[in-house]
Fold this sequence. Notes:
Protein name: Amidinotransferase
Organism: Ruegeria atlantica
Strand order of the largest sheet: 2-1-15
Shape: globular
InterPro entries: Amdntrnsf_FN0238
Strand content: 15-25%
Largest sheet: 3 strands, mixed
Pfam families: DDAH_eukar
Amino acid sequence: MLSLQAPSAVVMIRPHAFASNPETRDDNAFQTLSTASAEATSDAARDEHDRAVQQLRDAGVTVHVFDDFGDLNTPDSVFPNNWFSTHPGGHVAIYPMFVPSRRRERRTDVIELLKQEYRVQDVIDYSGLEQDNLALEGTGAMVLDHVARIAYTVTSNRADPVLLERFCTHFNYEPIAFEARDAKGRDVYHTNVLMGIGTHYALICLDMISDPARRVTVRNRLEESGRTVIDLTHDQIAEFAGNAIELTGRDGLILALSSRALAALTPDQIATIQNSATPLPLSVPTIETAGGSVRCMIAGVHLARR
């Protein structure tokens, strides 16, 4: 049975000029510098991407792959979930990005494929608001509960509150915004590094939510939606354990996450996931140097086939 939360098709971008982006390093504490050469780093990232695509396809997920040859200087293009999202009922959103290099990742061929193969009713393009220095970086900035219609959002320069309200009005979500900081007191740049929502469970580091009252609200809303809350630690978040996405494969629900993230989970946490989904670890250590992991690499297709 298809889950509203877990799409069976995804879009992924195959990188040819991957690098840890200097434009995003100031506010992304998850970024690290690779010690390998630029060419070796790029080749390793492409190999990791290709293996991940094959593993997802082997699990029965439809993967639409687009090559990015790096002509436009788009080092983060392997993370397409930030510039567009799709929604049940045939709706697509295109988002404004915080830094110039990420704005160049948007491409019409991805949207055209969605229109050709899926039922797309409308495309709402917010990208023009970049001229006003406003950003809302898709399902990086917002973790969407497609069932309870909630957009969980960490407030940051990547998630403008006015734009969040506008998105939620257009797409019929309730915004729940909160401040979040890591163990060193640094602001969290994207919501999807600290939480991920499956059909029957949610991964989240509640301790990163700064306001205790907001922490209680978020936990309550997740539990009210029928989900078991898997409370992650700061150390687990640093291993990208929150950056996971549930998908529908050939044999049911799977949780795509990095090998590093799965290794950071406790046996009890893994058992809770396995009550309803099969963890699918993908090895992406080079790609993780850019400050994102498996969730960031995958743009879910929540649209009906034509």
